[in-house]
Amino acid sequence: MIVHLVDGTYELFRHFYGLRRFHKKDPPFGAVAGVLGTIVQMLEGGATHIGVATDHVIESFRNALWPGYKTGAGIEPALWAQFQPLEQALVAMGVATWPMVELEADDALASAAHLAARDARVEKVSIWTPDKDLAQCVVGDRVVQVDRKSGQIRDEEGVHKKFGVPPAFIPDYLALVGDAADGFPGIKGCGAKTAARLIASYGPIEQFPRTALDGEQRTLARLFKNLATLRTDAPLFRSVEALRWRGPTPTFASVAERIGDIKLVKRVDELAAKLS
């Protein structure tokens, strides 16, 4: 089986701003309908095991570690208003959904990938997000990262080619170069090529000599690495069979009507009929 893990927060943003390019007004639940349509398309394409991670709130334990870490400030109200409706709609559609609070959606994806990859029945784990954080979860060609926008599928070789370091060193890499999306700056004067060269020479930042990182830089780098390291111990499920799609709940039709895409009901019902 192939396990598909979807970054629901990214997909919500993607559909929200995608719709905005074609509408003068924001459809109240247009982005929600877009995400559901994407999941239905995956099911129509043969996906059987799907899990979606969402940020129930943007803030996480990382905000206590670094004051500049990303928050929900600045998220447009029309977009923010669709966060919880997305979670409710996914559940109504019968999709395994993980709304994260203390941890982030990225941590849920990393944890789910870790759990799924331990199951010998799983042939491949596909993590559907372009977020560079998730590159650290890639393992050979069994756990891969899929960038829906570019169509790229990155296995371990692909991650190394893109970043210049193997997947296991992505937290070290991000600690050095920084991550503007997550709100930490990295080490001053350390660009992508320098970071890759240092990691190739010395390994993890904990092993860097003082000639590469001085005391203050070392402290910051370790902090940023902690921020960039995704947690893999969230107890999301005991068996990958929890991710098997078994059809919608009885409430899905009313949910689809509420979000303004009743056509989803027919598509989902046709998929469900094939399960029996």
Parts with pLDDT < 50 across at least 5 consecutive residues: none
Helix content: 40-55%
Number of helices: 11
The biggest sheet amounts to:
6 strands, mixed
DSSP E strands, number? 6
Strands of the widest sheet, in order across it, are: 3-2-1-4-5-6
Query: Which CATH architecture of the largest domain?
Result: 3-Layer(aba) Sandwich
Total of domains: 2
* CATH homologous superfamily annotation of the largest domain: 5'-nuclease
Provide the residue-averaged pLDDT: 94
Radius of gyration, in angstroms, nearest whole number: 20 Å
Strand-pairing-aware structural class: alpha/beta
End-to-end CA span: 19 Å
Quick structural summary:
This protein has helices at 8-20, 30-44, 77-80, 83-92, 105-117, 156-163, 170-177, 192-202, 215-228, 252-259, 263-275; strands at residues 2-7, 49-55, 96-100, 124-128, 143-147, 152-154. The protein is α/β, with parallel strands linked by helices and 276 residues long.
How does this structure look, described?
The protein has 276 residues and is an alpha/beta fold. The chain folds into 2 domains: 2-162 and 231-269, Rossmann fold; 165-228, DNA polymerase, domain 1. Helices cover 42% and strands 11% of the residues. It is built from 11 helices and 6 strands. A 6-stranded mixed β-sheet has the order 3-2-1-4-5-6, with helices on both faces. A hairpin with a 4-residue loop joins strand 5 (143-147) and strand 6 (152-154). Helix 2 runs parallel beside helix 11. The longest helix is centred in the first third of the chain and has 15 residues, at 30-44. It is globular and about 65 Å long. The two termini are 19 Å apart. The mean pLDDT is 94.
